[in-house]
């Protein structure tokens, strides 16, 4: 009570009515848990973003002639021609090797991004599922990103491009 006889409560002190109401206590507890979870997710996203910003992926072509490096957004950062193999390759073979290495590197980086971001796309324990939060990774990166890289390589064969057209009756 102050000198005028009025009572004042601290701004951070709970109102007696609020403190006595179990519904309000439950709501306050759930709000505190939700805010803590939001803080955890925000911190995790910041760490994931920082890690991805610096991420690169390097892959050699299947014929071991070319090495491609891509950044986290799939951008081509570098191409190296290994062991002077490119000197004995036709332009078609060299182009196929470059495309092979770049495609593999981009797909691998896309899968890395998916793994890194996956925890943030899943429903959180005790949190209501939010509609519209599902990520269609095939739409974002293309359908190849969902394929197993080993099975994809076997199915595609050696990965070389064919520059020949064979028509019936012609030699």
What does this structure look like?
The chain has 171 residues and is mainly alpha-helical. 47% of the residues lie in helices and 10% in strands. The chain has 5 helices and 3 strands, in the order H-H-E-E-E-H-H-H. It has helices at residues 16-20, 22-53, 91-121, 137-141, 149-156; strands spanning 56-60, 66-71, 76-81. A 3-stranded antiparallel β-sheet has the order 1-2-3, covered by helices on one side. The protein is elongated and about 95 Å long. Residues 157-171 have low confidence and may be disordered.
Furnish the topology, listing elements before pairings.
Blueprint: H1 16-20, H2 22-53, E1 56-60, E2 66-71, E3 76-81, H3 91-121, H4 137-141, H5 149-156
Antiparallel strand pairs: 1-2, 2-3
